[in-house]
Amino acid sequence: PVYSLSSVGTGDLGSYYVSINNPAGSTVSSNVSLSLFQTPVIVSQPQSFNLNVSGFGNLNVGVMGDAPFTYEWNKNGEVIQAVTGDVYQITNAQISDSGNYFVTVSNMAGSVQSDIAVITVSEPTPPPPPPPIPTGDNL
To answer: What is the DSSP string of 24-40?
Structure first.
């Protein structure tokens, strides 16, 4: 009544059915399909960067595996709502955008979490004052 595979490989992929026979007759089940799915693998981690207030930057993640993928971006351990792609974009950066960011990528086979990327947003450093202009007394 049970068919099990202890180690599944690509040669095992395909459709399966069972035929049941007894003295009263026989019947055949519906087909079931055996497929292999690869859990996501992060091949390009989000990178840390610094921004000035009002600047912009992107966090990107590169993933391999079986699509479709879902992306859940986090800042300081809290889920960032409404960001569901492989890029998290910061526009018009504010000090409050500073933090530790990571993304969890999932598909039907499992999930993987990226490394933490640190974003630091700071006020731009004002340029130094120009040197004094010599006056007639200093000539």
So the answer is: TEEEEPPPEEE---PPP
